[in-house]
Design a protein that fits this description.
- By secondary structure, the chain is α/β, with parallel strands linked by helices.
- 46% of the residues lie in helices and 19% in strands.
- Strand 3, helix 6 and strand 4 form a beta-alpha-beta unit.
Length: 357
């Protein structure tokens, strides 16, 4: 890679639009930085052997300052931008020019401008600073994957049937990662993501939240709610139902106000039916166990209806399937979180596999 070229994975790019840096990229950036430091030490030792009084190993800070002075074209403006006094900046510049052996800037009535040598030096100074920043960002990303913490929130379906596979895959690849998982309703999860308490959330759309504009929504998968009934109940042997057929039937449902409950209640009201909830629970397994005990019928995600559940594929609604769209939500300004970005990609892959079942 030439000095003026920018690697494809730089710290300023969106985490979502880039892949994590490869080990070879990290090694390349590290070697470039170490090489620059070694050359600076070599030059300092050579000057010392030659009897020069100056023995100054070039560091990144003077290079950063020189780049800013060159861009601003004025020492006063550069000192304000850098938070450094102008005398200190002038002294640094003189030291840098003494080190390279020639003036890099000339003073004009309007400020300073680059000499020919300054223009040549600027391109290399920018390359060195950029390489160091990229190397630091790459190491931070790798460290994040080695021992980072990922905070995820989601509803009962996501936490029970999607996240176990995601966490397993991530832990196999990066065993040093730690996970914090919060099971809650979609609006609670979205609010926690918006506030920064969670890195990613798995929610049912739409989000009814005042801070919803702070969030980016990434479509994940489509889910369908199916009816399950106690054994021996006549409707349990059928493949479909109508709302009128279950009017008055005792229902074990998710807690009021949850996204899943809203999907079901809205469809029932559209058909002119008010469901008779005799129990509200938070978990899918809780609903299935109550139904097994004959307390009432219930609605659960199709992803929960594996053969061992005892409910088969469940009972679909004849008057329109009870579908909902699940999505990943994240902040618009997530910052550097390599672990969360990698986890998001694994979530999308796991959702595709789950949807194909």
């Amino acid at each position: 890679m030439r000095d003026h070229e920018t690697p494809t994975n730089i710290a300023g790019q969106s985490r979502e639009s880039t892949n994590l840096p490869s080990v070879m990229q990290v090694i390349s950036w590290s070697f470039r930085f170490v090489f620059a430091c070694d050359m600076a030490r070599y030059m300092a030792k050579r000057n010392e052997r030659a009897g020069c009084s100056l023995c100054w190993c070039m560091e990144l800070t003077p290079l950063r300052y020189f780049v800013v002075i060159s861009k601003e074209g004025h020492l006063t403006r550069a000192s304000v931008r850098l938070g450094v006094t102008q005398p200190a900046l002038s002294a640094m510049l003189k030291k840098l020019e003494a080190h390279v052996g020639t003036p890099l800037l000339t003073r004009t009535g309007r400020g300073v401008q680059l000499t020919e040598a300054g223009r040549v030096f600027l391109s290399h100074a920018e390359s060195a600073v950029r390489a160091a920043d990229q190397g630091e960002a790459a190491v931070r990303e790798l460290l994040g994957l080695e021992r980072g913490t990922i905070r995820i929130g989601g509803g009962a379906t996501a936490v029970s049937y999607l996240l176990p596979k995601v966490v397993s895959a991530m832990r196999k690849e990066h065993p040093g990662l730690r996970f914090f998982v919060r099971e809650a309703g979609s609006n609670q999860v979205a609010a926690s993501v918006a506030s920064g308490a969670l890195d990613r959330g798995l929610v049912t759309l739409p989000i009814t939240l005042t801070d919803a504009d702070k969030l980016v929504r990434v479509p994940l998968m489509e889910d369908e709610m199916r009816l399950i009934a106690p054994s021996g109940d006549a409707i349990g042997k059928r493949a479909s139902f109508t709302w009128r057929e279950i009017a008055g039937m005792p229902i074990v449902g998710f807690e009021a106000g949850s996204a899943v409950r809203d999907v079901i209640d809205r469809a029932a009201r559209d058909a002119g039916v008010e469901l008779d909830y005799v129990m509200e629970v938070r978990s899918i397994e809780g609903i299935m166990q109550m139904v097994r005990e004959g307390i009432g019928a219930g609605f659960v995600s199709k992803f929960a209806l594996a053969a061992e559940s005892g409910f088969g594929a469940g009972i679909a609604c004849k008057e329109g399937s009870l579908k909902r769209q699940l999505a990943i939500v994240k902040r618009r300004d997530p910052g550097l979180s390599a672990a969360a970005a990698a986890c998001e990609r694994v979530m999308l892959d796991a959702a595709k596999r789950l949807s194909r079942r």
